[in-house]
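Example complex used in Figure S2.
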Amino acid sequence: MGMEEYMTPGEIVGKSYNYIAGPGTYLNPSNSTIYACAVGLKRTIPASANAEDKRPTVEVVKEKEHGAVPEPGAIVTARVTKVMARLASMNIICVGTRAVKEKFAGTVRQQDVRATEIDKVDMYASFRPGDIIRAEVVSTFSAAMIPISWTEMQCPLTNQIERRKVARAV
Amino acid sequence: MEYISPEGLRLDGRRPLEMRQLHAQLGVVDKADGSAIFEMGNTKVIAAVYGPHEVQSKNQQLPDQALVRCEYSMANFSTGDRPRRSKGDRRATEISLVIRQTMEAAILTHLMPRTQIDIFVQVLQADGGTRAACINAATLAIADAGIPMCDLVTSCAAGYLNNMNYMEDSAGGPDVTVGLMTKMDKLTLLQMDSKLPMDIFETVMQLAIEGCKAIVRYIQNILLENTKQLEYQRGLRS
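Predicted assembly (408 residues):
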């Protein structure tokens, strides 16, 4: 199949006018060069027939993948730990088909449980602690509260309002 | 005290510009995501890397990149006298910071936002150049963990002699430690103890950089050997 080429981080894989940088590589725009960022075998995948970019994709195939991290859009498997009126907390144990090395925390909001009648959702009737659920990651930020008046702040995730002293409401 | 004999040999029989023997092993701590033991002569250090995983304290989370934490410690039995060392002693805190900044420059942290990467390095046997050995061990452990890096960082310490051991180090002469991203040819660490005239500094720094380049060749071989060994065990090659 041709020469087997093993790469280590920092080695030059190719030029960006010849290749698209795939997983295991990164592009340095200042000199249009693609470098490896992992240890593994270099592999070139030709562009699909109907792609408008005819450049083949070059990637470095790692032997050991680093632990799975939940990203927006990923399907995760989680175990429910706490159920409250407007949200349920859980520990994410798998991302896709890969188990995580150490758990990640997640929450399901009342308005994300189902598509219809979202304000009539009863969290206690939907989840119990210990349940294993499958969910799609909507976003990964732990939001800071937003001030809404001189005595109140609101969490953007749960829309819960808490009384706080606010210096200037924007 | 004669650091170079009339025949031109040092206390351990090396030539003035010669490096110590290198030895490294990957995957020595099963629980860790990546780990390595790195030896430069008699200096032996072990590194263990955990991550990327969820940040322990949410308020320290960085929204656009991974948080890199590093902890350096010396085993009580690592030096000739075996003092009771406290975790937070000033030298250990300083070296932890130095190693963290050096490795953070090489890890592609923007690929893993809102996560944390922990690097633990412990000196098992100290014979000069522990800081440099720790950086080399950390590079190997991070590569073993599969965490993306823009380049391999290697480190070497030099003074008037290259890669000094404890006896030569405690002589009180200049000691320049260099951390280099070899393929990019960029420095990520430059530290010096004692004083040096400016014109000699350039030469000493070049000596340390040469040491870094020799170490990176060895580290690349170790990483490739390890990958081939893993492929062999998975049955992808015979």
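DSSP finds four helices and eight strands in chain B. Chain B touches chain A at residues 33-34, 50-54, 58, 61, 63, 106, 108, 112-115, 143-152, 181-184, 219-220, 223-224, 226-228, 230-231, 234 (CB under 8 Å).
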